[in-house]
Amino acid sequence: MKMTVLGCGDAFGSEGRFNTSFYLEEGNRKILVDCGASTLIRLKQLQIPVDQTDTIIITHFHGDHYGGLPFLMLSNWIEYQRTTPLTIIGPKGIEEKARNLQEALYPGTTNVIDSMDINYKEYEESRWVQHEEIGIYAQKVSHAPPSNPHGVKVKIGEKVFAFSGDTEWNDSLIDLAEASDAFVVECNNYLEDSPGHLSYKTIMEKMNQFNTKKIYLTHMGSEVIGQPQLDLERLEDGMRIEI
User: Fold this and answer.
1) Are 56 and 71 in contact (CB under 8 A)?
2) Would residue 124 be called left, alpha or beta, if left means φ above 0 and alpha means ψ between -120 and 50 degrees?
3) What is the tens place of the pLDDT at every residue in 28-75?
4) Distance in angstroms (rounded) separating the CA atoms of residues 90 and 60
5) How far, CA to CA in Å, does 235 sit from each of 141, 202, 204, 216?
6) Which of 1, 17, 24, 109 could bond to 243 as cystine, CB 3.0-4.6 Å?
7) Across-strand partners of 20?
8) Residues ≥6 apart with Cβ < 8 Å to 178
9) Where are the beta strands (DSSP E) in 65-181?
């Protein structure tokens, strides 16, 4: 499995980083995990074909994690005349949220979604959902409750990618990391947790509970980005990683 970091920034674009979005490739599968508002721009900057993504997985309903959907939909329809199926998987209410966001950002374009072959699936809490060759596992985490926050695991073949989503400490993170090949965990702060977000200090204190081959830090604020050296690897926009 290959991961391209389209964006690993926080909601404020600290140090100029783009919104959260990870592009996973395994065989013929092309998957977006989260689709922040800058996702379409990043796909084009990195020359990744916009219309080849077959699955989009959304962790929660904040703009820096799903706000890029309307831009992506319009590009697929108008620029590429997409006819191939697209599946969008997310928390309960994903279809309504996606349609409402489309109409809010581009009034009168909801028919774009209706004209495309888009299928929606909702998570089943603490259970694997199968979509063709892709397994998706979701757990509730501790972030802003109205955003319906989740962490996810994505399995294709023998490889498992795990992502905490946005969260403060929650024992669900132990389950999400379990038996993963890579665990991407949010690290918004350096020494102190804040409501809905983790700190590097907490991650280091808890990391022995994570059964994963590799931990990567994401969603970092300026203080974490600016640290000269950390014991865990920090993601950067544009990184390409073999999982």
Assistant:
1) no
2) beta
3) 999 999 999 999 999 999 999 999 999 999 999 999 999 999 999 999
4) 7
5) 21, 18, 16, 6
6) 1
7) none
8) 211, 212
9) 86-90, 118-122, 128-131, 134-140, 150-156, 159-163
Give Rg (Cα) of the chain.
17
Beta-carbon-side half-sphere exposure of residue 175 (alpha carbons within 13 Å): 15
Integer CA distances (angstroms), 159 to 26, 108, 177, 212, in order: 9, 41, 13, 12
Single pTM value for the model: 0.97
- Whether 173 and 151 have beta carbons less than 8 Å apart is answered as yes
Per residue in 192-239, pLDDT (tens digit) is 999 999 999 999 999 999 999 999 999 999 999 999 999 999 999 999
Question: Which single residue is written with the structure tokens 């319906």?
Answer: 148
Q: In the chain, where are the structural domains located?
A: 2-242
C-beta neighbour count of 143 within 10 angstroms: 25
CA distance 139 to 178: 12
At which residue do the structure tokens 């989503």 appear? Answer: 165
Rounded to whole angstroms, the Cα distance separating 165 from 55 reads 17
Side by side, the strands of the sheet bearing 118-122 are: 118-122, 86-90, 55-57, 29-33, 21-26, 2-7, 240-242
Greatest CA separation for the chain = 51
Query: CATH number of the domain at 2-242, please?
Result: 3.60.15.10
**Distance of alpha carbon 97 from alpha carbon 145, whole angstroms:** 15
Q: Under the phi-then-psi rule, with left for phi > 0, alpha for psi from -120 to 50, and beta for the rest, what region is 49?
A: beta
